[in-house]
Amino acid sequence: MLSNLDPIVLARAQFAFTMSFHIVFPAFSIGLASYLAVLEALWLWTGREVFINLFHYWLKIFAIAFGMGVVSGIVMSYQFGTNWSAFADKTGPVIGPLMAYEVLTAFFLEAGFLGVMLFGLERVGPRLHFFATLMVAIGTLISAFWILSANSWMQTPTGYAVNADGQFVVADWFKVIFNPSFPYRLVHMVLAAYLTTSLVVGAVGAYHLLRDPHLPGPRVMFSMAMWMAALVAPIQILAGDQHGLNTLEHQPAKVMAMEGHYQSHKDGAPLILFGLPDQATGRVDYAIQIPKLSSLILKHSLDAPLAGLDTVPRENWPPVPITFWSFRIMIALGFLIFGLGLFSLWTRWRGTLFDSRPLHIFALTMGPAGFIAVLAGWITTETGRQPFTVYGLLRTADAASPLAAPAVGSSLLAFVIVYFIVFAAGAIYILRLMAASPHHGEQGPSGDMPSRAAGITPASGAAGQGALS
Amino acid sequence: MIAAIDLATVWAFIIAFAVFVYVVMDGFDLGLGMLFPLFPAKADRDVMMNSVAPVWDGNETWLVLGGGGLMAAFPLAYAVLMPALYTPVIAMLIGLVFRGVAFEFRWRTTAARNRWDIAFALGSLLATLAQGVALGAILQGVQVEGRHYAGGWWDWLTPFSLLTGVALVVGYSLLGATWLILKTEGALRDKAYRLSWGLLFAMLAAIALVSIATPFLSIQYAQRWFAWPNVALAAPVPIAVAAVTALLMRSLGQKQDSRPFFLVLALFALSYAGLGISMYPFIVPQSITIWQAAAPQNSQIFMLVGVAGLVPLILGYTGWAYWVFRGKVRAGSGYH
After folding, report:
1. Are A114 and B108 inside 8 Å of each other by CB?
2. Among partner residues B72, B298, B334, which is closest to A100 by beta-carbon distance?
3. Hey, what long-range contacts does B277-283 have (CB within 8 A, 24 or more apart)?
4. Across A361-373, average pLDDT
5. Average pLDDT score, chain A
6. Are the beta carbons of B86 and A411 closer than 8 angstroms?
7. What does residue A138 show for φ and ψ, rounded to 5 degrees?
8. Long-range contact list for A120-124, CB < 8 A, 24+ apart?
9. Residue A7 — pLDDT band, cuts 50, 70, 90?
10. Cβ under 8 Å to A: B residues 276-315
């Protein structure tokens, strides 16, 4: 049964599946680690008990999310060798060092200080503990730096040469690391992580406010989350626009797929809002479009000519339907998040931030929106890179391991079963923690000992103000 | 082949060092996991888990460095070995997934706690067995054509690789047992002492069996061990193993709490040195040397800067984390 399938298709499915499950966790941990650092800093600075309660509340959730990120991440790091050994051989000299630096500068930092962050407050005291939290937060950002550099190099390769063995070798490290799409991708992804986390925090806050609008913990977290969403959503839309223009410059076929432009337009290309791209006929059926708007967005001129996929050899076409739709899902969610931010500003101005049920219901339903947008964004950029793994240089079909379909199929099946068991359980435990409201004297992961953390008064805080005696 | 500074050899040592640190550090985590079924009481399991909860993630990161470093410094070896070890690697990853999440999940549920304890134990066992099998499969060599693995999907499975798999299960379990001696007290520690004796004899038997079998794998190993001048390098290893074993038995007999763990580390180091002597300079035994597999010099130099600067720092703050959580773990003073 399995042997009739194409091993390359199975390997790609395995990558897509394991990557989709993995990216959810770093996106959440990058934002949450920074949020935890902010909460702890506020606690140290003001001494207000609500901040340490929120810190401990989110720390327990962070522990689970981070653990799931770690185990799904190890799977990713070995997958380059198991399913994509030709890719590993050919790009190892370029990509390998970037990922090795990620381990050396980020993973060890996160893992080394995580234990102290989770369990060490009483052993090391508030200041050293805050340092540990800060190190974990910085580690998540450094990790994003290196892995996005590696991914961006695959999208927009520069600074390389090719040796006699057919391997990519590095001619200029600076050009490899800071390749053309990297700054845009890094900003776009870190902002996405911050937005994703603010939506989750906001949804949890909203959930508890719907039940009782007077709880101090939910009020504080909801307000913080809504500030974040309101400030970052418009910046993210701008960053995304810039990233798109950069993609147009370096990966035009990807933008053609995103836009659904099979045909070239000599005087102003329309923006196709919706339609059904048909890869076989090279047409978008049932298209609803706004004339000239695509040229305006991409070229800042109504009548600018815009090339379509008819200028690209067919064997180099990305799969348009997937790219086209995932891009639209991401954009739609982006504007919904922007709308949520505006709505929250409006209620804030009217003084009903903590009482507006429509806002709370909206924020609650938007809880998973960040995750879905992140997934849609990654699907857009990765399928839009096809049929290449290293854009224009190494075809996906030439990157795979010399494996038969049964091997790749069985491992895919195993991962599907394992991931559904493990990550469903993890999601249930996280939701269970979220269902409880942060309360007075909230304990961290060191729960079954009498927590004296609430009694540790930050040295810089007003003594006694937040302390429980 | 002897350059003033031979980068490939330097990198071979770095990768070997990373893998060794992984083996001894995650070895006791995994060993402790495999001992879980022998400690059915919840209180004991809480203590066992809490003895490694703050550090296990850092321990496991050395495995990522080993794999990532191999891809970066010896991409050809990585590209050949990973498909050759396809099934053991996937099995190891799945084992590590269950083991890793069990650390967090078991505290979040009462109904399913026992199920996550089982997942913790089985995940640890699967990951260890897979690592040991992978080691045996590498030692016996893999089929290579050009720059690709050319063998079958089941080539890794031989009596020898199963032997190395079982040997590692025994070895990690002994590490786990002596770690418990170091970190616990009372009845739990006494049980760990008793287990250590049995596991020690099992480990010695495993070392002996693997040592006897290895020279039969290929003429290369036999020459490496028994031909002059290598015999001068190889001969001290069994003598040192005997000496360390004697010290270990004495410390177990005298109920010294910290010494057994470090003596087991020494046993691991000696076995590991024996492996190194057997393999060098091959990275894929009998087919690919470290020079053939080496990444271009500028890739290796670029990373060497990072390793030289960062590994001491990493060892520093990792040591600090161990220092923060030093001492005996007591029941009820859990971190969770």
Report:
1. no
2. B72
3. B277/B224, B277/B225, B277/B230, B277/B233, B277/B234, B277/B237, B278/B139, B278/B214, B278/B221, B278/B224, B278/B225, B279/B139, B280/B12, B281/B1, B281/B9, B281/B12, B282/B220, B283/B12, B283/B74, B283/B77
4. 95
5. 89
6. yes
7. -65, -40
8. A120/B54, A120/B324, A120/B325, A121/A444, A121/A446, A121/A453, A121/A456, A122/A446, A122/A451, A122/A452, A122/A453, A122/A456, A123/B324, A123/B325, A124/B324
9. confident
10. 295-296, 298-299, 302-303, 306-307, 310-311, 314
Distance between start and end Cα atoms, chain B: 54
Please give the angle made by the CA atoms of A179, A182 and A183, to the nearest 5 degrees. Answer: 115
CB contact under 8 A, A63 and B58: no
Q: Which of B325, B28, B103 is nearest to A445 (CA)?
A: B103
Tokens of A424: 């469903």
Cross-chain Cβ contact A88/B57 below 8 Å? no
The single-letter code of the amino acid at A374 is V
d(CA A264, CA A308): 4
pLDDT band at B219 (very low <50, low <70, confident <90, very high): low
For B148-180, the pLDDT digits (tens) are: 888 888 888 888 899 999 999 999 999 999 999
Interface test with chain A among B143, B299, B305, by most A beta carbons within 10 Å: B299
Both tokens assigned to B141:
């060599």
Query: Does residue B318 belong to the interface with chain A, where contact is any CB pair within 8 Å?
Result: yes
List Cβ neighbours of A10 (8 Å cut-off, separation of 6 or more).
Answer: A2, A405, A408, A409, A412
pTM: 0.91
pLDDT score of A287 = 82
A255-277 per-position pLDDT tens digit: 999 998 888 888 888 888 888 88
